[in-house]
From TrEMBL:
Residues 132-179 are annotated as: Disordered. This is Phytocyanin domain-containing protein. Keywords: Copper, Disulfide bond, Glycoprotein, Metal-binding, Signal. Residues 1-22 form the signal peptide. One of its GO terms (molecular function) is electron transfer activity.
Length: 201
């Protein structure tokens, strides 16, 4: 019986250690999810971050003025809003990152995507090393009247793997992401500590 208790206690505490190191990201921070002044705003926002499995993105926006669509790479590059994988209109939208790989998000309202309201991220494993949070984007080409529109790309579609949690759940706080090595060493220490405590029983 004591062996079963030790095993269950270890698994519960190890799971808690992984959850503790998950990050909640408020997309755009204080700017939130809106049509930005700078075409590269969301690319720049994501560039210094490492998105890992277990992290959560939160998109906050004015009701009726913006939305969030999960799209393929091709749709992201061309701002194609016709067939999104998922489409959300009620703020806040919370998306749990549950698998590795690139993921793409756009606003389908008006020309917001073409004016920079789009986000591409690359998700790594929970203990994975950082390779940069942003996914490279296709360079923009000049459009009419000085506007810019993304260049058409020939990339094959990639399906993002994020899933959503129901809107309206409790709010989240923004935290500064820590480095992969720091998170991994802290998790390793916590698991070792838990193992030592369980061994005492």
């Amino acid at each position: 019986m004591a062996g079963v208790f030790k095993t269950v206690m270890f698994l519960v505490l190890a799971f808690a250690a992984v959850v503790v190191f998950a990050e909640d990201y408020d997309v755009g921070d204080d700017t939130e999810w809106t049509r930005p002044m700078d075409l590269e705003f969301y690319t720049t926002w994501a560039a210094g971050k490492t998105f890992r499995v277990g992290d959560e993105l939160e998109f906050e926006f004015a009701a009726g003025r913006h939305d969030v669509a999960v799209v393929t790479k091709d749709a992201y590059e061309n701002c194609d809003k016709e067939k999104p994988i998922s489409h959300y209109t009620t703020s806040p939208v919370r998306i749990m990152l549950n698998t590795t790989g690139p993921q793409y998000y756009i606003c389908t309202v008006g020309d917001h995507c073409r004016f920079g309201q789009k986000l591409a991220i690359d998700v790594v494993a929970a203990g994975g090393r950082a390779g940069g949070g942003a996914t490279p984007t296709t360079p923009a080409t000049p459009g009419p009247a000085g506007s810019t529109t993304p260049a058409a790309g020939g990339a094959s579609p990639t399906t993002p793997a994020g899933t959503t949690t129901p809107p309206g759940s409790s709010g989240t706080t923004t935290t500064t992401p820590t480095g992969a090595a720091s998170s991994l060493s802290s998790a390793t220490f916590l698991v070792a500590f838990v193992s030592a405590v369980v061994a005492l029983f």
